[in-house]
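Quick note —
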Amino acid sequence: MKRMMDGKEDFILVDARRHEGFEKEHIPGAVKIPSDRLGEHIVRQFDKNRTIVTYCSGWSCESSTIAAKKLEKYGFTKVFDFKGGLENWKEAGYDTEK
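Predicted structure written out below.
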């Protein structure tokens, strides 16, 4: 994902955690769409051919996987689940936003 960002690839980064987590800290450029609120009405604004990367807190969090599966169900074809999430992002020394 970092290579995608550095290469300025066109993708949507979805933070699938609850609202409180996003407000506290998130990966730069992410949009807040909690997996439990992700519905077809929300994703209508996105092109189904764009790449979407989902993430949540880390390996023990299932929100990114749930969000990725929902997006695929809604017809998105390029969906990736960054399972290491915010935890791995920070461990790698990358910046976050608050």
